[in-house]
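Before relying on records like the one below, remember that each one covers exactly one chain. Contacts with other chains, cofactors or solvent are not represented anywhere in the record.
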Amino acid sequence: LHVVQINAAPFVIITRHDDPLATNKSVRFATLAKRQFITLSEGFVHTRAFAWFEQRHTFSPNIVYRTGDVPLLKRLVRQNVGIGFLTRIAINPDDRLATLAIDDAHQPVFTISIVHRKDRVLTPAMKRFESILKSYKWGNAAQKKIDSSKYVRIDFYMEFFPIVDAKQANFAGV
């Protein structure tokens, strides 16, 4: 496989700006044992990363709500339903949320990579798409070099799939 990493960002805890945690720049996951969490549902790489933190500590986080909707998760945090767990690149200044780095050693990191088979001949559109992704300004996380000694890699891959022309597909009924 040909793998091109286009970004990497740490996972963070998000809170309201007036939450007592927001006065800190970082937090150890173990100190969050009594907090209520809002997390993403199954199917997100965040779930695997959150499970990593659960396995490293002697408590099961109190998850009060799971959602597949990132904007909803942020709204619930702003409404003080709980604290959230997202990757730093999912947070924008317009979200009006505080982010706290997680101090735990050797934690997962969110990586975005483009992957395709080495023998795949990329179309001009695929090459352009790859170029756009590589040149995209990913916010603060893109400018900060990730210290690989502090993180374990969890990958999010974008794979190029061939586009099938319906006229050539010869599907029954088409």
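The two ends are 34 Å apart (CA to CA).
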